[in-house]
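Handout, section 4.2: multi-component inputs.
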Amino acid sequence: MTTDTTVLDGLDFTAFGRGPGLAVADDVADLLFREARTAAAFTPDEVSDERIAAVYDLVKWGPTALNTVPLRLLVVRTPEARQRLAAHMSEGNRERVLGAPVSLVLAADTGFHTHIPTLAPHMAALADALEGQPEQRESMARTNALIQAGYLIVGLRAAGLAAGPMGGMDADAIDQEFFAENGWKSLLVVNVGHVEGTGTHRARAERLGYAQASLTV
Amino acid sequence: MTTDTTVLDGLDFTAFGRGPGLAVADDVADLLFREARTAAAFTPDEVSDERIAAVYDLVKWGPTALNTVPLRLLVVRTPEARQRLAAHMSEGNRERVLGAPVSLVLAADTGFHTHIPTLAPHMAALADALEGQPEQRESMARTNALIQAGYLIVGLRAAGLAAGPMGGMDADAIDQEFFAENGWKSLLVVNVGHVEGTGTHRARAERLGYAQASLTV
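Output:
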């Protein structure tokens, strides 16, 4: 298996500066995936709510099961809110939350089903059916919101922002702290801001190659 | 809250054809999110293993917890393998699998921990610690592989391919059929190929707006 060709499936990807096998230019592939790094430290530059909204308005179009789009964002911005969040992060992640211009708690809305009549009118009856199935709803919400978390991280980068996703936290405590009334379940925290260079001093870690990560039948 | 400005945070995004609040050009935002649709029918054009590998080699760089990268791909290509997969899809999804040039079963590798010494050398001891914690491993694998599923769907589009993700399937039966020996857990199936136009006849469904999907503190 090789991918170092610029012609695949009869298409010449060298036209317009596209990388091998890709339909986007190399600088886009670099921005979104190849050069992007998980940021641990940020410049003091602010990130406005409008920038976060622009990212959301891009990635909301990504597909989810039955168009349920259960991802929700808690935008943590004020010094007081940051302290409340940092208290529930694992020790190594507290300073990262306190040092970022803004942190997002990505959450799954277990009450997503109430929007089904709007989001998937042909399945409107499912809203009532799911009302009495909280476990099924939580499973659907988590699965689809995690897929959307992938879209969101790519979307932040597409907006020229650096993302620092972190799973080390007391999710139940965060839910009690912020989501006691709305039924959101926290999935991960993403620090967002601007960085100098790649925003990290660590050498890039290895990844598994395609042959290690796939089987063909 | 409005995002219909082309100047945010003092940056003018109209330069170089970038959309409001974005660092990528409008055609890229359209390709990856805004115009892309879940494809239900494909042209007969083939999708080579090299194309799939190029997508993997792009999205493998996306962040996961401890760089565990637990997403695995089963590439379902032969007529016999398609029939085996289609038998475990929900009724409405069978013809979609049989009609796609290639289908990917996205799976979470519960044995991901054996790669930690390579992928996160500073955490190498975790490989042994996780050996006796199968439930913890499955949870970590599922969470991070779902985030990677989001990256992969964007990556397929970045390669100019149409994606048709589907969750309607008997996941346990697929695991028994294909993954009895390697411990992979199927998450969703994504049909991959080329489409005429957007690949769907349905009008685009609504999405929740930023104000409905977020809170700021």
